[in-house]
Design goal:
The chain is mostly helical. Helix content is 53%, strand content 5%. It has 14 helices and three strands. Strands 1-3-2 form a three-stranded antiparallel β-sheet, with no helix packed on it. Helix 3 packs parallel to helix 6. The radius of gyration is 32 Å and the shape is globular. The C terminus is likely disordered.
């Protein structure tokens, strides 16, 4: 990028190509986007594209720290810019603690009574992969454990859907061999394998017909050939014509 500093259009073409490929193959994208040596105005559009990509990637976003978030917001035009608001909204999905602290320090909280629990509770209303991508620092927070428990026992959501959501998180953690997070998940609300059955609709019983079958008649037993009659329930005679 430094070689293209005096050619902004060529630099943007290069970044657009990388952006189209989701910056595949570029290592340390975060360090490039936040590199102080790339502080010239010519680098700003490229760095903004990189930062927005990082924010949209749960794994990369979870690796940002508080100082890096502040630096990113500055590059994106300050705390009130549309880009910064979109950036923080994405980062909040995996680092609600850092975004909450930034907003509190910057006077951006929606309510003066908003708490870290509120921020975390809102952040886990997201895709299970984002929850699984949250770093261990988040998972170890008492506010996170409380929020996760409350979400998984929310009576406004069916037990079947709660179990499904929980199982999706668990499957991702199993794939990643993330045992520390698995222990927290399983200790928060142990899954009830019978809950799916409780939400299932009972199977309707097949209707019982009392009409005579074709070729069959029911009569009193008098005057009949007993060799052709079967006594059923001692109430009616079953005769084959």
């Amino acid at each position: 990028l430094t070689q293209l500093e005096k050619n902004p259009s060529a630099m943007q073409d290069l970044v657009n190509t990388a952006k189209g490929n989701k910056f595949t193959g570029i290592k340390d994208l975060k360090n490039i986007a936040l590199n102080p040596q790339l502080g010239g105005v010519a680098f700003t559009p490229a760095k903004r594209d990189m930062l927005m990509h990082i924010a949209s990637n749960a794994k990369q976003a979870s690796n940002l720290n508080a100082e890096e978030i502040k630096a990113a917001v500055s590059i994106l035009g300050g705390k009130e810019s549309p880009e910064s608001k979109a950036f923080l909204k994405d980062i909040e999905k995996v680092r609600p603690d850092l975004v909450f602290n930034f907003r509190r320090e910057s006077g951006l909280l929606q309510s003066p009574t908003e708490t870290l629990y509120d921020a975390v509770r809102g952040s886990i209303n997201t895709d299970p992969k984002n929850i699984a991508s949250m770093p261990k620092e988040i998972w170890n927070l008492p506010e996170f454990k409380d929020a996760l428990r409350d979400k998984l026992i929310d009576p406004r959501v069916s037990k079947k859907n709660r179990n499904s959501f929980r199982n999706r998180i668990e499957n991702i953690l199993l794939e990643n061999s993330d045992n520390a997070k698995l222990d927290i998940l399983r200790s928060s609300v142990p899954v009830d394998r019978n809950e799916d059955m409780e939400d299932s609709e009972p199977e309707a019983e097949a209707p019982t017909s009392t009409a005579p079958a074709a070729g069959v008649s029911y009569r009193n037993g008098s005057g009949l050939n007993r060799a052709n009659v079967i006594d059923l329930r001692n109430k009616k005679d079953f005769e084959i014509k």
